[in-house]
Design goal:
single chain; 2 domains; two-stranded antiparallel ribbon; 49% helix; coiled coil
Length: 302
């Protein structure tokens, strides 16, 4: 009788296959280009930036880098907001949408409230859900032709950079500069009279040069860098003209909300007046009922 080479009941060792050494990378979260998110406390946050509406696209801009007229190169243009998306429009949308959602909580109520004023304006949309209607409204607000001008792309992009630098500067004044940052003695060797006087204004001016770089001898820069340098140089001149801290804060507030109008030669008086009037109305109506605020919001499209 043949004898099995393996003992009864024993298990043959099976050589296991080596595990794959390939590392499976975690799937990154898809970045939302444009949508509606909600924070843990229920606030609405419009994220991303919507595409241009059909009406906005009808505003002609030059995108040809080689276009010349009578031998002169025509600057490349962008569709430029008078009231900017991130600085003005999106925060207003967030505030109004949040108020609407917190006020109209019964089933179907919010959807009806969002639809009614749009239907009255005879807008045609495929929107079905609350978020669909919020996206539709946000896209219309962003692409309102009355808030757009065709202007040089280098100026448009430079303004965005300058605004970002102004925010950094303002945050530094809030979060970094305290009384402890103010030297006991000024550059002239004399004691600083108080944190609220010469000492603080000197620190404000020095910080401005850190966040608003300016090179009077700039050369070899791109058109955008050149324009940033020019704008920030003018801002530093204005800041140097401030004698007390509250003048700096007043100037910063004006710069954040008016730099666009000051620099756009193509912003007509009517467009500027309408955008500023709407902006002021939306700032004042924060305590009014959500339904009224929503109708004020949509008046931007009239």
């Amino acid at each position: 009788m043949a004898v099995s080479p393996h003992k009864s009941g024993s298990r043959r060792k099976v050589k296991s296959r080596p595990r794959s050494s390939r590392v499976i990378a975690a799937v990154p979260k898809k970045k939302i280009r444009f949508g509606i998110l909600r924070t843990p406390n229920g606030d609405i946050n419009v994220v991303g930036r919507p595409e241009w509406t059909t009406q906005a696209k009808e505003l002609e801009v030059n995108q040809d880098e080689n276009l010349t007229v009578n031998g002169v190169l025509v600057p490349v243009e962008d569709r430029r907001h008078l009231l900017h998306w991130d600085e003005d429009l999106r925060p207003i949308l967030n505030s109004v949408f949040t108020a609407m959602e917190k006020e109209f909580t019964r089933p179907g109520e919010l959807l009806s409230e969002l639809k009614a004023p749009l239907a009255a304006r005879r807008y045609v949309t495929t929107a079905k859900t609350v978020d669909d209607y919020m996206r539709f409204v946000a896209r219309k607000i962003n692409g309102s032709p009355d808030n757009l001008v065709p202007d040089r792309a280098d100026i448009n992009q430079a303004i965005e950079k300058v605004r970002a630098n102004l925010r950094k500067y303002e945050n530094a004044l809030h979060d970094v500069l305290t009384d402890a940052d103010i030297p006991a003695y000024g550059a002239d060797g004399k004691p600083n009279p108080s944190p609220q006087a010469a000492g603080r204004i000197g620190v404000y001016r020095n910080a401005a040069r850190k966040y608003l770089n300016f090179d009077p001898h700039l050369s070899g820069a791109t058109p955008i860098q050149t324009k940033i340098n020019e704008i920030q140089g003018k801002i530093l001149e204005m800041l140097d003209g401030c004698d007390v801290p509250h003048e700096v804060w007043h100037l910063l507030n004006e710069l954040k909300y008016s730099v666009t109008f000051d620099l756009s030669a193509k912003a007509t008086r009517d467009k500027t007046a309408k955008s500023l009037a709407w902006q002021n109305m939306m700032r004042r109506n924060t305590e009014t009922p959500a339904r009224d605020r929503y109708r004020d919001l949509l008046s931007f499209l009239d």
